[in-house]
């Protein structure tokens, strides 16, 4: 009641400046939050692509490798193992392309068309995977590990494969020997080398002794 | 004696017009940012649909197809029955589940230059998840930028940018 003489109309300059500052501060905070969200989302997307790529490649290799040595005429083979020769027997071989790391190329064969023979025309039943120039390649037309002409399985503009190695070993369980192949893979994103993924997978090669 | 005076109508009008100017300048950039985000979203989601189809083919041991429809009412959908209309969600299913991407989530985006044969279909084979004979590509556009999703015969999917490298995608 004592300050009746002050008549206040609207905002003072100081009040206006304070409110502008507060407004700006909150806008900056909000926009940086949105920006951060977008950047994080984009990073997650790229990371998911790395994961998807690695998972897909591992799935392809492990499923295919699991078939190594398969021959459709199992009964004939068991009935008369002396005259019937399994052309897919012991077909898993490890080597590497020139200047690539040791055991980074695996080749094998299986009876894809179930005719009991190792076909090389039309359907080539020689399969394989290898590391070359930081990409994983799939064997085409039965070309050897030392040859070119294999097809890329991974996108070299997105990911860089640092390691691919295969190791074949035998384990005995209840006196039954089993061949297993361990696949080891390490990949990183080209755009963000900090983001990498490594995976190790052991595949049982059931048709193999 | 202090006498505080408030804002005059003129001052208020100046402030409002400056604000209006800023908003008019800002809206197109927000709009284009939103379009770019949608474009990325459409390309990435389709990319993951391709990868999913490939993994399903291998894991389930069945041929998995992807059906497409181009234009503004575009769609991409996985199916295990082969050819189907991806706009009808009950048609393209994998084990009764709908795995589709369509224009309703990406209002600004259209699909162009669909190159997956006459049937507008691609297939990943059951044995090795390859798409031999079914390679192709499609382009998503927001009116300015374009992203191309390319599928190789080996079942490899990649995204690239038509024209210039943009948004973390290399030039096609």
Structural class of chain B: alpha+beta
Could you list the spans of chain B in which at least 5 consecutive residues all have pLDDT below 50?
Answer: none
Task: Compute the number of helices of chain B.
Answer: 1
What is the topology, as strand order, of the major beta sheet of chain A? 2-3-4-5-6
- The radius of gyration over CA of chain B amounts to 23 Å
Strand content of chain B: 25-35%
Question: What is the first-to-last residue Cα distance of chain A?
Answer: 103 Å
Biggest sheet record of chain A:
5 strands, antiparallel
The H-and-E topology of chain A, N to C, reads as EHHEEEEEEEE
The radius of gyration over CA of chain A amounts to 31 Å
Mean pLDDT of chain B: 90
By DSSP, the count of extended strands of chain A is 9
- Shape category of chain A: elongated
User: Structural class, from helix and strand content of chain A?
Assistant: alpha+beta
β-strand amount of chain A: 25-35%
């Amino acid at each position: 009641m004592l300050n009746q003489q002050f008549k206040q109309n609207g905002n003072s300059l100081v009040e206006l400046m304070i409110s502008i500052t507060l407004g700006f501060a909150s806008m900056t905070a909000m926009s940086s939050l949105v920006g951060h969200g977008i950047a994080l989302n984009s990073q997650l997307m790229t990371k998911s692509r790395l994961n998807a790529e690695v998972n897909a490649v591992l799935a392809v290799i492990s499923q295919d490798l699991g078939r190594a040595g398969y021959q459709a005429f199992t009964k004939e083979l068991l009935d008369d193992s002396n005259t019937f020769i399994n052309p897919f027997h012991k077909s898993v071989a490890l080597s590497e392309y020139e200047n690539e790391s040791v055991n980074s190329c695996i080749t094998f064969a299986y009876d894809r068309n179930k005719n009991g023979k190792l076909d090389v025309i039309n359907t080539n039943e020689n399969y394989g995977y290898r590391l070359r120039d930081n990409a994983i390649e799939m064997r085409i037309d039965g070309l050897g590990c030392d040859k070119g002409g294999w097809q890329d399985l991974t996108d070299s503009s997105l990911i860089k494969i640092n390691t691919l190695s295969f190791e074949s070993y035998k384990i005995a369980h209840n006196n039954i020997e089993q061949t297993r192949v361990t696949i080891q893979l390490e990949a990183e994103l080209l755009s963000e080398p900090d983001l990498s993924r490594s995976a190790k997978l052991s595949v049982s090669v059931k048709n193999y002794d | 004696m202090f006498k505080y005076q408030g804002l005059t109508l003129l001052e208020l009008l100046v402030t409002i017009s400056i604000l209006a100017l800023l908003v008019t300048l800002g809206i197109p950039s927000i709009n284009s940012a939103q379009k770019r985000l949608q474009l990325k979203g459409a390309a990435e989601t389709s990319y993951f649909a391709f990868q999913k189809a490939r993994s399903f083919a291998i894991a389930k041991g069945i041929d998995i197809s992807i059906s497409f429809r181009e234009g503004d009412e575009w769609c991409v959908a996985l199916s295990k029955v082969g050819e189907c209309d991806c706009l009808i969600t009950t048609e393209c299913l994998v084990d009764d589940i709908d795995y589709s991407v369509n224009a309703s989530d990406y209002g600004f985006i259209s699909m162009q230059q669909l190159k997956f044969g006459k049937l507008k279909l691609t297939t990943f084979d059951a044995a090795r998840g390859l798409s031999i004979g079914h390679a192709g590509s499609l382009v998503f556009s927001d009116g300015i930028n374009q992203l191309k999703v390319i599928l190789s015969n080996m079942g490899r999917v990649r995204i690239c940018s038509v024209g210039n490298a943009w948004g973390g995608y290399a030039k096609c």
